[in-house]
Amino acid sequence: MTGINKPVVVLGATGQQGGSVAAALRAGGWAVRAVVRDPSGHRARSLSASGVEIVRGDLGDPESLRAAFSDAHGVFSVQPNSGQAGADVTNEDEVRFGTTVADIAGRCGVAHLVYSSTVAAGPTPTGVAHLDTKSGIEAHVRNLNIAGTIIRPATFMEILLLPGMGLDRGHLSFLMRPDQAMQFIAVRDIGRIVAAVFDSPDRYAGRTVEIAGDTLTGNALAEHLTQASGRQISYSRLPATLLAQDEILGKTVALVDSGRLVGNADLDALRAEFPFLLRFDRWLAGHGAGLLQEALRPTDTGIALR
Known about the structure:
Blueprint: E1 8-11, H1 16-27, E2 32-36, H2 42-49, E3 53-56, H3 62-69, E4 74-77, H4 91-107, E5 112-116, H5 129-142, E6 148-153, E7 155-156, E8 171-174, E9 181-185, H6 187-199, H7 201-204, E10 208-211, E11 214-217, H8 218-229, E12 234-237, H9 240-245, H10 247-258, H11 267-273, H12 280-285, H13 289-296
Parallel strand pairs: 1-2, 1-4, 2-3, 4-5, 5-6, 6-10, 7-9, 8-12
Antiparallel strand pairs: 9-11
Helix pairs in contact: 1-6, 3-4, 4-5
């Protein structure tokens, strides 16, 4: 790291991305301040025990954000969205939260803002509202007088092992065709990339970086899962009947077929820049092993994508 004594504020630290960022920053010697709604919660207490400063705050409460961002060097910004299972936010909420975080960071004199977006973001709408929200937040960040870096993570490897994806029945169903390639990233690596960005602000300020760790077809996913689990795993795209019934899933698959959502990161260049990036087989053998065992247990859960 750069030797800066000021903390980096991490939003969503009790979730996947924010949690990985907080852990990577702490491992790199940064002081970390996590904004949480409930400091007494189990995940918040675990963060505190790891050396993270916990402050009470809420994305819907600008005053709490101003207090949290006071004297901070950086802010990692990620918001809940309406596409997440159980998320109690609207698309308008997400845009308001993301733009408010960026505005307050600028007003508080934060030196570096890192915003986590999506590979589908861009100037042309996708037609999927919870993806297009991120394009709007990106545009807002770029128009502010603050050093900002936008990362666009590929699909999380962890999503493939959610309960209800079919692995307990020896099968994986996902968005692409069996022979169609799509990029994926381990959530742990998102945190390590963000930590590297904060370590080298001059290198990354003003950049939008698409990030991934591996490119795999559906059939290749099944082969890796078969080898890692010791049981035969097959693959197919999500059923056509489901895609016809669920408008958002249908549109999401169309974005995969158009190339908008598959990810187009230059993996060779990324690995030269971030040599720690995990391929799917290595992730399955390490950080993903416990998730795989859990996913293989019998369950009555249905499709978990939404």
